[in-house]
């Protein structure tokens, strides 16, 4: 890892603070990190826990994890020594971050390939530390962010659709409604019930979801449930397909049909393919 502690100020949207790559160990930051972090999972799997939440998010390969500065969190490999992570952290104004789609909310986005991002990160690393070139590092960081935006925007992974599209409306109401759907996906939630929870009409709420997520609230709920079902299938082989479906609030037959539509495999086939891959 290389850090840039220079006090030199340059007129660019972002400046690089740290860059590097290595096996990620268990990390707990009670007051968050002093800079905004982007962590690329190169291989292996990890898990992320945000303080104030009960659950851990599973971080798989070909994903980028964004953690804003000052966000209390902890993350660790699922298996010790089996989570290779490349990272870059940066400083930048709130308006600059917002223009690139980075808010004060952490997110995990899938990407198609790590190759170009790792290439740019290595070049950032060479311009950091004892050879720190603030202008060159910042220029490369903007190239890195451009590549990241392009890849995450083009991703076909259903989980990418759980986050607002770049430049979309980020109404507090619609984000609260989305969080409610994630927290209570196991319940039978109707449009009328959701609208009542946030104090908006069904028509207004649908319009906000379409602006922010390019989908309706109930279609968003379906995506939340399928993404959660996919993670459960990956993490716990002892749970039956019917139990997975009920955990995420879906009828088993409906879950199987919709899972096949989203992933191209029925849940049982998906689980067998994972097991075969792990045994290779």
From TrEMBL:
It holds the Pfam family AraC_binding. Residues 175-273 form the HTH araC/xylS-type domain. SMART domains: HTH_ARAC (SM00342). Keywords: DNA-binding, Transcription, Transcription regulation. SUPFAM superfamilies: Homeodomain-like, Regulatory protein AraC. This is Helix-turn-helix domain-containing protein.
